[in-house]
Amino acid sequence: MRHENSLMHDVLKPMPWGAFDRVVEKHDADRGVRTLSTKSQFIALAHAQLSGAQSLRDIEARMASQQARLYHLGAKAPKRSTLADANRLRPAAIYGEVFALVAAQAHRGLRKAANEAVQLIDATSLRLSSLSQDWAAYEAHGCGAKLHVVYDPNAQMPVRFAITAARINDIVEAKGMPIEPGVTYAFDLGYYDFGWWAEIDRAGAKFVTRLKKNTRTTLVETRKPPAGSTILADRVVRLPERMARSRKNPMRKPLREVHVELETGKVLRIVSNDLDASAEAIADIYKTRWDIELFFRWVKHTLKIDHFLGTSENAVRTQIAVALIVYLLLRMAHAVQTAVASLLTFTRLVSANLMHFRSIRDLASRPSHRPPHHPNQLGLALC
């Protein structure tokens, strides 16, 4: 029996459309809109992410050929110029708020039981064309944007994000994010700020990061490192009392300094305000930082956020936010089936069958040879 809805309908099923409509109404985004609602704009951009469309004209052609099946999604195929105007003018903040709603929903379903909450903080640069120089000019590296992410390695998903011009320092954006008590934050040298470390400590959270080679510490206590491990030293130390320009260091409490030897022979000086965890546990938390690097690589190359459909700040912000929402939807869709273990393989199967009448749960089965329902969709099954 043929499924009544397309695979894309299944992927979008977790979307909180009622809350989506309330966000749209809050921003008054659909006032005076006659041809392309905000919902249709979102579905068009989500379709582009899932199908691999490379341009506005490509989106227009693909979706026009599938108009009959878009009916089940409650959307219409956009005109290229109309979609361009929507991306440029419709507030990108809508999609930032929708991301938060979908992330909260996904986090409840994807997070596994764990003794400790760990979140990774990092940023990645995105190259933009010279047409974006009015907001993203960066003299050292040309035009670019920066995606800042707080990532939960347990649920394998971003829980918070921000977008800035590439010239904005990572720590500037990090200082504006809320700190959750009880969470351990892991980050690298881009967030080397003793004042911010002290804020994390005062908020009842923990941090794990690296010390620079030239940062001197005062020894308070020496602990015996575990035998037969890559941990060379485990110490309790204090940071220098004074910073640059003789300012007092706000991070006055004792810290843990753990030295770890890598396979290359390089030694990392890991520092944390957690005085109770084992040295191995602290080293393992820092090691999980690799997860966010893999996430950035996956999103850039699989969802193509290294290629932008518009040049304005609003268009770039919109596209990135929609890409992250699509990532969350894919993670939730992947979680409800067991036949395809790899998220990358699952995403490729979704792309190949996007507008077919198929269920998420039978993606791994032999594809149907039934012709598309609408004559205009012949030959476009693999989009």
Report on this model:
- By secondary structure, the chain is an alpha+beta fold.
- It has two domains: 7-91 and 337-377, no CATH class; 95-295, Transposase Inhibitor Protein From Tn5, Chain A, domain 1.
- The protein has helices spanning 7-12, 17-26, 38-51, 56-65, 67-70, 80-89, 93-110, 133-136, 170-174, 194-202, 279-287, 289-302, 313-335, 343-352, and strands at residues 117-127, 144-152, 157-165, 183-186, 206-210, 218-223, 231-238, 255-261, 267-272.
- The protein has a nine-stranded mixed sheet with strand order 3-2-1-4-5-9-8-7-6, with helices on both faces.
- A hairpin with a 4-residue loop joins strand 2 and strand 3.
Helices and strands in order, then pairings?
Layout: H1 7-12, H2 17-26, H3 38-51, H4 56-65, H5 67-70, H6 80-89, H7 93-110, E1 117-127, H8 133-136, E2 144-152, E3 157-165, H9 170-174, E4 183-186, H10 194-202, E5 206-210, E6 218-223, E7 231-238, E8 255-261, E9 267-272, H11 279-287, H12 289-302, H13 313-335, H14 343-352
- The whole-angstrom Rg is 24 Å
The CATH topology annotation of the largest domain reads as: Transposase Inhibitor Protein From Tn5, Chain A, domain 1
Q: Biggest β-sheet, characterized?
A: 9 strands, mixed
What is the CATH C-level name of the largest domain? Answer: Alpha Beta
Read across the widest sheet, the strand sequence of neighbours is 3-2-1-4-5-9-8-7-6
What structural category arises from helix and sheet content? alpha+beta
**What percentage of amino acids are in beta strands?**
15-25%
First and last CA, distance: 23 Å
